[in-house]
Amino acid sequence: METIKGILFYAAMCGQVPEMHLFLLGNPLFLYLIPAIESWNAVLTFTLKAINSRITIQRDGELELNDDGSRDFLLKWAAVKKSDLLKMSTRDVITYLSTNIFAGSDTTAIALRVIIYFLIKHPENMRMVIEEIDTAN
């Protein structure tokens, strides 16, 4: 949550003054001056791990399709990249996947906050949820 909060603040600032990015995280020297900033980007780390695990799976001969027959974003963007190298670079694929993960985690966090808020505000519903969870085991 703190990572998302930090990224949102940074995006808000650089969204208002895009030139700031060139002097902050967009500056290649920044990573050398403050190497700990790499650990700040948990979303990118998660994305790269997911990509690396999928590449390994594909080399082992696993199917590319999900159980429901739909294809995920990684496979779709990899197909675009493979069909036309000028349309999309590897960096673009990583950026798009990271953006989707970031947006999804932000949406999930907001939904969970709303659920918790309303359960606290309505204790009778909270009791029903707790009872349902207890009986499910």
UniProtKB/TrEMBL annotation:
It holds the Pfam family p450. Keywords: Heme, Iron, Metal-binding. GO terms for molecular function: heme binding; iron ion binding; monooxygenase activity; oxidoreductase activity, acting on paired donors, with incorporation or reduction of molecular oxygen. InterPro entries: Cyt_P450, Cyt_P450_sf, Cytochrome_P450_monoxygenase. The keyword GTP-binding does not apply. Gene3D superfamilies: Cytochrome P450. SUPFAM superfamilies: Cytochrome P450. Its cofactor is heme. Belongs to the cytochrome P450 family. This is Uncharacterized protein. It comes from Fusarium oxysporum f. sp. cubense. The lineage of its organism: Eukaryota, Fungi, Dikarya, Ascomycota, Pezizomycotina.
